[in-house]
Amino acid sequence: MTDTTTPSETDPSHGSARLRLRTGQPTTPISPTLYGLFLEDINFGCDGGLSANLVNNYSFEGVYLTNGTLPYAPLELIPDGARERFAAMAPEDLPLEATTPAGRHRDQLRHWRLEGGRLESSRLGAATPGASFARLQLDGGQATLENHGYPGGRPGMAFDTERPMLLSLLLRTDAFDGTLEARLVDTAGTVVASGALHQDAPGWHQCQVRLTPATTTLGSLQLVLTGSGTVDVDEVRLVHEDHWGAGDPRWSQGLLRRDLVEALGALKPSFLRFPGGCIVEGCGDGSHFDWKKTVGPLVTRRAEYNLWGQAREDGDYSQSNQIGFYEYFLLCEDLGLAPIPVVWAGDSCQTRQDEHLPLESAEFAAVIQDALDLIEWATGDATTNHWAALRAAAGHPEPFPLDHLGIGNENFGPEYLAHFQRIKDAVDRAHPGLTVIVNGGVIRPDETADPAWEIYGEDEKVLVDEHFYNSPAWLFNATDRYDSYPRGGARLFLGEYAAYLGYDLGDRHPAVPEDMLAPEPNTWLSALAEAAFLTGVERNADVVAFSCYAPLLNLVENGQWPHCLIDFSPSHVVQTANYFVQQLFATRVGEHVVPLDGELPDGVFASATLGDGVLHLKLVSIGATPVTIALEVDGAQDGAAAGTVIGGRLDAVNRLSFDGEPRMEVEPRTVELQVRNGSVDVVLEPTSVLAVSIATAAPAPAPAV
């Protein structure tokens, strides 16, 4: 939205303040990686979201979490305000008991429904050794094999008349006499596109057909057999032709959904942390994220259950690994992001199942080697290294950049720290230029990652990863959190955070009225709290080197975590209010912090940075009345200054239903402010964020020493 009018003129009846911004003073450098992304396959963010393939259980390899497995949550780790939510997840009292190990259930035909004929899973004569495939047997007449897409309970594939689709699959029809047809059908079963599947080769062969929907709708894929005999099917992929990277030979394996990638790019992030998150750790029994199973041709990748299936009926969440480390690194390359992979440290998810590999075991030695092999896969010489050769074979002979490596996720305690040190030592010996990231655990209110800071606080080659999901009130009160963090050694990696209302402890900032505690996720209240908090992050960007919001993606009406940055349906993408705050901060940031002289009014938070001769000022007002601020900017050039305002009711939410259209209640709007004689008068709207960029004659200051 654009508003070319000047903001309200100064009104002396408003609360007021005067601030001076000293653009010519030496200041703290801003980390060039301050704002980034964290991507985990939760809420169907990858399978069913970022993956361009609309087919659920496309390879007939479905692996699912045993129904009823629940998170293990030691009582002392749960904030008081969240205990009721945890208790509602199980009838027993806290702490919840875990299944040891978490159960694994193979259901190779889940999400496939056959009408007519017989359907079974087989491995006999598979296209790839050890693979499963579907075998359809028909004694005459017609049979229809159907897949609804994600999440699977109803038609969930997006068809668009303006977007042709490509269906590809492996077929073996040597023992079949008849015809095969692919159909796209709407929710009523009406055919909106169809095409013949040709049987022109013996044995396994790939078949492709282009399908252009006649109607824009949600629907399902059908494979229709007419005749008699046996048809074997595997690796069924249905993608829009305009998927991300279409026509690029590097994108030879997993493919990505274009509109979601574009939404990520519009945030202007500097890095991507992946693949998790709790799925890195797993629930024991080999369920951790094994990067080696996610590179190489798709036909060689095997599925694993997703532990977030604990919130799905019958554990219904399988990781197909179509988005693996190769795809993550390519995404980073395309968007200009620094890749920050996280490797398993030999420790399970400790809020579910507190298991650790013995330090001196062969199993843990393999964990160390896996970390070293990842570095070689990403950066090694493809002519001399097996793993690097696999990267080259996929279409990327050149090495990927890799400067940082996360070791474990949200792990803590002596076992983890011993694991971390052992892996760090191996990485330091083999790749001394790499910076490693140690876990600080999940931060409860009034806590810091003390054990990690005590051990590694003076090590400049270590980043300490802190995570928190606390109430909006906590974030309002934590804008000065990093003011007292130690300088000169390890820096902070804020790897996951959000103003998550599920953890509302009932405290609040003095300027916040009681009715600002809202019960719904992704309200403007939560985004406003995050904006206030980020002013403190920017002011302390010498110690906060990285920050990324979590979770990132959410398939609406089917999530496991209710507060995310981007909501999407099969057809649409909606930026939450929180998204717009992240975008505002990441797109208006300079290279150095600018000091502010003057006293901010109660309920107003500010940060200012300077880069390329432009001052970027953010002002966050959480009060219920307008606030007037007179700005004096050293070296400011007179004329128009572009600004962006985001505001709304505290309970405003941008909404999207699974089969509906977006409904936006919070959106940025552009404003124009006038600079006269180095001064700017602004009126901050109630509960709003204002960012303004002002050209200055001041040279970029030298870094502080």
Précis, in short:
The protein is an alpha/beta fold. Mean pLDDT is 90; it is low at 1-13, 85-98 and 503-507.
Low-pLDDT segments, ≥5 res: 1-13, 85-98, 503-507
Biggest β-sheet description: 9 strands, antiparallel
What class do helices, strands and sheet pairing give? alpha/beta
- Please give the radius of gyration in angstroms: 27 Å
Q: How many domains?
A: 3
Could you give the count of β-strands?
A: 34
CATH class of the largest domain: Alpha Beta
How confident is the prediction overall: mean pLDDT? 90
CATH architecture group name of the largest domain? Alpha-Beta Barrel
Percent helix: 10-25%
Count helical runs: 12
**Overall 3D shape:** globular
Strand content: 25-35%
Could you name the CATH topology of the largest domain? TIM Barrel
Distance between the termini: 42 Å
CATH superfamily of the largest domain: Glycosidases
Give an overview of the whole structure.
Helix 6 packs across helix 7, helix 6 packs across helix 8 and helix 11 runs parallel beside helix 12. It is globular, with a radius of gyration of 27 Å. It is built from 12 helices and 34 strands. The chain is an alpha/beta fold and 705 residues long. Strand 28 and strand 29 form a beta hairpin. The strands form 7 sheets. Strands 5, 6, 7, 8, 9, 10, 11, 12 and 13 form a 9-stranded antiparallel sheet that branches. An 8-stranded parallel beta barrel has the order 2-14-17-18-19-20-21-22, surrounded by 5 helices. The N terminus is likely disordered. It folds into 3 domains: 116 residues, Sandwich (Immunoglobulin-like), CATH 2.60.40.1180; 398 residues, Alpha-Beta Barrel (TIM Barrel); 136 residues, Galactose-binding domain-like (Jelly Rolls), CATH 2.60.120.
